[in-house]
Amino acid sequence: MRASEPALEVRAVGKRYGATVALEDVSFTLRAGEVCGLLGENGAGKSTLVKVLSGVVVPDSGEMWIGGTAYRPRNITDARTHGVATAFQELSLVPTLSVAVNLSLPHPAGSRFGLVRLRRLEEEAARILHTYGVADVHPGALVGELSLGVRQRIEIVRAMMRAPRVLLLDEPTSALSDREWLFALISRALDGGTSVLYISHKLDEIRRICHRCVVLRNGRKVLDSAVAVLSDAEIFSSMAGRSLVEAFPVASSTVQPGPPALSVKNLSAEGIADVDFTLARGEILGVAGLEGQGQSSLFRALAGLLPLRDGSIEVAGRRQIFRSPRAARRAGVVLVPEDRKEEGIFKDLTALANISLPIIGECHRLRFINRRAERARVEEVIPIVELAERYLPQNIEALSGGNQQKAVLARALIAGARCLLLFDPTRGVDVGAKQSIYRLIRRFAEEGGAVLFYSTELDELVHLCDRCLVIYRNRIAGELSRAALSQERILAIASGHSLPQSAQPEPFAENSVTAR
Amino acid sequence: MSAISLRQRLPEGLGIPLIVFASTAFLVAVIKLISPGSVLAQQIEAILVTAIFLVIASFGQGLAILLGGIDLSIGVVMGLAGMMISGLTNGADAALGWAVPATLASCAAIGVFNGLGIALAGIPPFIMTLASGSIFFGVGLGFTAGAAQRPVAPALQKLMSGHFFGLPLPVLLLAAFALAAMAFQNGSVEGRRLYAIGSNAKAARIVGLPIYPLTVAVYGISGLCAGIAGVLLAGYASAATLDMGDPFLMPTIAAVVIGGARVTGGRGLYLGTFAGALFLSVLETIITVLSLSQGLRDIIEGAIIVIALLLQTAPAKKRY
Amino acid sequence: MKIAVKIGRALGGGAPFATVVCLVMYAVYAARAPSALSIFGITNVLNDAVVLAIGSAGLTLVILAGEFDLSGVGVIAIANVLVATTSGASGFGALGSLALVLAIGLLVGTVNGVLVAFFQLQSLAATIGTMIACEGVALLILPAPGGEVSDKIATGLTGDLAGVIPVALLILGGFAAAWFVFKRTSLGVAIYATGADAQAARLSGIDLRRTRLAAFMLAGLCYAFAGYMLSAETGTGDPRVSSALLLFMYAAVAIGGTSLSGGKGGVFGSLVGAGILTVLQKMLFALGVAEFYTNIFNGIVMIFALLFGNIVSSLAGPLRRQVAK
Fold first, then answer.
1. Partner-chain contact B294 C136, CB within 8 Å
2. Residue B208 sits in which domain range?
3. What pLDDT shows up at residue A246?
4. Omega of the bond prior to A106 within 30 degrees of 0, cis?
5. Phi and psi at residue A261, to the nearest 5°
6. Mutation for B interface: C81, C115, C121, C128, most B CBs within 10 A
7. What pLDDT, in 10s, does the model give residues A271-322?
8. Helix, strand, or coil here: B243?
C-alpha cells in the first residue's frame, strides 16, 4: 500500500428521501492506489453513496474532494471529467443498442461531420474488448441479446476503459461466473494509478482484494478499518447491528411439519426449470441463490404471475393452475413481492386502505364501504405484524420502509394466506422491523401456515429456515436440511460447486464466508 | 365521531377543489362587475344549467384518468347520443320510454368497446378512444347522411327548461348526479379499487384486484355519462348535430386536471372535477359576456390545462 | 439471412412489411384507376401523402424518445393560416413565410419540450394543453377559412420537375435521407437510448432533458413544415385542421413499426405508414366505398396497426429471450 494523498475524500455527506434517511454524516477517505471495500446490508445506503459519488444524485449536505480539489458532480459526464467512473449494479447499458455504441455513449465518436461511423466504432470496441479480455463478444451484438453475465462484463469494461482516477464497482460480481477475470483487471487498474471503491456483499471478495473496508448501516458509517485485523464476526455484527446469534428468535424445534401445504412437481416457466419440492404445513422453507438465478421466476410462477410451461402445483393435495394472483389467493397462496415500491404499496392510499384491499369487497353496505367493519378487520391483523395503530390513517408513502413492509405483510395475512411466499421481505427494512418480521414468520409457521422464504441475507436463511433450497442457473442445485444449514454450504452450492449428497462440509480453496 | 375517524372519512386532497370553488366564486363576482346590469341569481342559474353537460361528461373522463387512461371519444359519443335520441323519438314523447335506454345502452357499449381494446388488446387508451371516436363518427355519418333533421321529443326539452319548487330541474339533476358520483368514486368498494389500480397497477395485479373488468366498466361508465350528457344537450338545444359534442371533449379533460387529479392516475376527487367543470362553465360565460373570440377561448383553455399541471407538479417536486 | 436482418434493422423494424403492403394496395388502386400510374397520378398521391408523412416523421422523433405529442395538429393549423395570410405579395413571400412558420414550430416544440423535460409534466396532458392553445392562436390569426397561399408555393411545391419527378417525391426523399443521416448522429443515438431505457441512458451519461427537448423541438419544425406543405396543397387557409389528422399521424407511426413505448422503430417506417394510409384512402375511393366508411376504416386500421404491432412484439419477445440464453 502506497501512503500518499487521498484519491477521494468524502466529508459528512447526507441524503434523505422524504421521511427516509438514506445517508447521514458519512465520511471516509479512499487513498491513492488502494482498494477500499464498502459493505452493508440491503438498504444500508451503499447504492445511494455510489449514486452520490458518480453524480446521479446530489447530496443534501457534506462535501467531497478529489485529489485536493472540491468535487461536486452534477451528472455522470461531469463525474467522468473529474476522473470518476462507475460500473453500476443495475447495469447502465441500453438494451436496444449494440455493444459498440453502448461503449461509446454518451457521445459516440464521430467523423468530421459528427456522424457515428458504426464500422469505426465497432473496430474500436473490438480492440477495447480484446484488451480487457472479453474477446468472445461481437461488438455489433445488441446488448439486450446478451446474457446478464456478459452485460456485467461490458459494464465493467466501460467503466475501466476510461482509465479513471477513482473507479466505483457496485456489486460487480452479482452475475459474473469468472471472478478471477475481474480481480486481474482490478490489479491492472491499480498499477495504472486507479483507486477502487469496491461495493460488495461478499466477505471473501473483500478479504481477497481490499486493503481497507468501510461498513454502512442505516445510512451511517459504523466501521472503517483495515480488513486484515477484522474477524468475520466483527464485520457481520457491524453490518447487522447485532451479534449473529442473538438477533433471531430461538429456533423452535418443537413444531413438527405437518401434511404438505404446497407441492411442486417438475415446474418449468420462463427463467426456471424442473423445480420439485414439497412444503409442509408449519414449515419454513428457505430459498437461496445469487442474484438472477431464477428465484424471482419461481416465486412469480407460484403466485400466478408467470405462466407455467410444464409441471404442476398442488395446494393441500389439490392440483391447481394459477392463471392469476387472484386464483392463487383463492387457494391461499399469497406473494409478498420483491420490490416494495414498484409492486407492494399503493402510494396514494392510506396504510389502512393498503391493508384492507383484499377484503374490501367484504366490508360493504350496498357496495359502499363500511369503514367500521374495514377498520375492525384490519385491527385483527396489525398486532400480528406489530404495526402501530396510529399509522393506519397515514398515507403509506409517509411511513418508514419497515412499517410499509409490515403493512404489506398485514395485507398478505388479511387475504387469508395459508402459504406465504416471501421474497426478500427484509430488504431495506430497519433492524426493529426485521425482528418483527422474523417473529411473524415463526408465528405464522407455528400456527400451521407454510412459508417459502427467499432472502439475500444468508444469515436469515440459516437461522429461520427448517430447510433451504439453493438455486443455481435456473434450477434447484441443492437442498440443505436444518442440521446441514450454514452460510458456507449455501454459498458453495449457490456459486455452482455441488456438495456431495452426504452434505459434508467441503473444504474450500478460498475463504468463502459471505455477508450476503 | 372521533377526530381520527373524521379525518379518515374526509378524503385527502380537499384543498385543490376548495381553491377551485373559491376561484369560481371570484369569477362569478367578475361577471357581476363586467355586466352590472345582469341579475346575479339568474346568471348563476343559467351557468348551472349549462354546466350540467360538462359535469356529467367529465365524471367519466375523471374515472378514465383515475386509471391512468384518457377518453377521447366523449365528444363523438355525445353527438351520437343526441342524434340517436332525436332520430328514435322523432318528436314523440311516447318513444322516450325505449329510446332513452336504447341510446344510453349504445353509448355504454361504445365505452365497453374502448375498455375491451384497452384492457385486453393493450392498446394505449388515447389511441383506442381516438380510433373508436373515428369509427363511430363514421357509423353515425352512415346512419344519418341524407336523413332530415328530426325534432327532439318535447318532454326532453321540458326537462331541461322545467322548474321544481322554483329550482330549475337541470340544477336538481346536477346536484343529484354530483352527489351520486362522489359517493361512487370516494365511498364505494369499486371506487377504492379504482384508486388502487390507478395508483399502482402492478401491485393491484399481485393483490388480485379485478383489473380487466374494472377497466372495461370505467370506459363503459364514461360512454354512459357521455351518452346522458348528449341526450340532455339535445333536449337543451332542441336539436342535435353529430358534432355538437366536440366542444365538450377538451373541457372534460381540463375540468379533471384543474380539479387536481393526477394525469398518470391514482389521485383526484370527483369534487375537484365538479369544481373544475363549474369553473370552466363560469369562464365560458365570461368569455361570452365579453364576446371574446373562439380563438382566445381556446388559448385560455389550453393555458389553464398547462398551468394546472404545473401547479400540481410543483409541490410534488419539492418533496424529493 | 444476416444481410436481410441488417437491412431490416437499417430501415427500422416493421418497415419492409409495411412497404410491401403499401405497394400491393397501390396496385389495387391502379387496377381500378389506371391514371394512378401516370406521372400526374403519382404526383397526386404523393401530394396527398406528404403532409401526413412529414407530420408523422416529427411525431416519430418524440415517440422514439418515449413521449407523446398531440400538439402536431395545432402547429399545422397555425402554419397553414400563417402561410395563407403572409405568403402573398403584400406579406413576406414564400421563403419569408416558410421562415416564420418554422420559427413558430420551433417555438411550440420548445414550449412542449421545456414542459415535459424540465417541468416533468406528463407529455400527453401537457401537449393536449398546447394543442388547444395552438388551435386558438390559429383561430385568432384567421377566424374563418380563407386567405390565399402564394402561387409560388401552391404550384411550385405540388407540381413536378420537368414533368418527370414530383416535387413531393423530392421532399420525401430528402426527409428519408435526412433521417438516415440523423440516425447516425449523437442526438439520434441519444433519442433511441432515452426511449428504450431512460434510466440506463442517464447512467450512460446521456442528458435526458436535452434529448427530450431536442426531440420536441425537431418535431415542432416538422409539424410546421407539414403545415407549409398543407397550405401548398390546399392553396387556402383553414384554422380548423381536421382532428382526423391527429389520428392519422399516430396511425402512420404505428403502422410504420415504431413502438409507442419508445426506443424502437424509425422515421422511414412512418413515411411508409403515411403512404399506406393515403393509398388506402385512394383505394377505398376507387373501389367506390362511401366517404363515411373511410372514417370507420381509419379507426379500424389504427386499432389493427397497434394490435399487429403488439402481436409481433409478443411473438418476437420470447424469441429474443431464447437468443439471450
1. yes
2. 42-314
3. 52
4. yes
5. -95, -40
6. C128
7. 899 999 999 999 999 999 877 788 999 999 999 999 999 999 999 888 988 9
8. coil
Of residues C194, C188, C189, C179, the one with CA closest to residue C65: C194
pTM of the model: 0.86
Predicted local confidence at residue C191, as pLDDT: 95
Closest partner residue to B70 (CB to CB) among C121, C124, C247 is: C124
Question: Phi and psi at residue A132, in whole multiples of 5°?
Answer: -95, 15
Domain limits of chain A?
6-240, 246-332+417-516, 347-414
Place of cell 380537499: B14
Q: How many domains does chain B have?
A: 1
B25 within a domain of the structure (yes/no) = no
Chains that touch B (3 or more CB pairs under 8 A): A, C
Instruction: Give me the residues of C, 260-279, that contact B with CB < 8 A.
Output: 260
B167-215 pLDDT per residue, tens: 889 999 999 999 999 999 999 999 999 999 999 999 999 999 999 999 9
**φ, ψ for residue A453, nearest 5 deg:** -130, 110
Q: Residue B118 domain-assigned?
A: yes
Q: Cβ B131–C121 below 8 Å, yes or no?
A: no
Residue A409 neighbours by CB under 8 Å, 6+ apart: A336, A385, A425, A437, A440
Residue tagged 423535460 (cell numbers)? C117
- Tell me, rounded to whole angstroms, the distance of Cα C174 from its chain centroid: 14
Q: Give the closest residue to B152 by CA, choosing from B100, B224, B227.
A: B100
What are the residue boundaries of the structural domains of chain C, listed by start? 35-313
- Level-2 CATH architecture, domain A6-240: 3-Layer(aba) Sandwich (3.40)
Q: Which pLDDT tens digit goes with each residue over A149-190? A: 888 899 999 999 988 999 999 988 877 777 889 999 999 999
Across A64-78, B91-105, B216-230, B258-272, which has the greatest mean pLDDT? Answer: B216-230
Task: Select C35-313's CATH number: 2.60.120, 3.40.50, 3.30.1360, 1.10.3470.
Answer: 1.10.3470
Which chain C residues touch A116 with a CB distance below 8 Å? Answer: 184-186, 188-189
* Assigned CATH for A246-332+417-516: 3.40.50.300
In this prediction the ipTM stands at 0.88
Query: Which of B142, B296, B302 is nearest residue C140 as measured by Cβ atoms?
Result: B296
- Give domain status of residue B219, yes or no: yes
- What band does C209 get if pLDDT is binned at 50, 70 and 90? very high
Which chain C residues have a beta carbon less than 8 Å from that of A342?
Answer: none
Q: Give the type of residue at B289.
A: V
Residue at B143 is within a domain:
yes
Residues of C at the A interface (Cβ-Cβ below 8 Å)?
181, 184-186, 188-190, 192-193, 196-197, 199-207, 263-264, 318, 320-321, 323-325
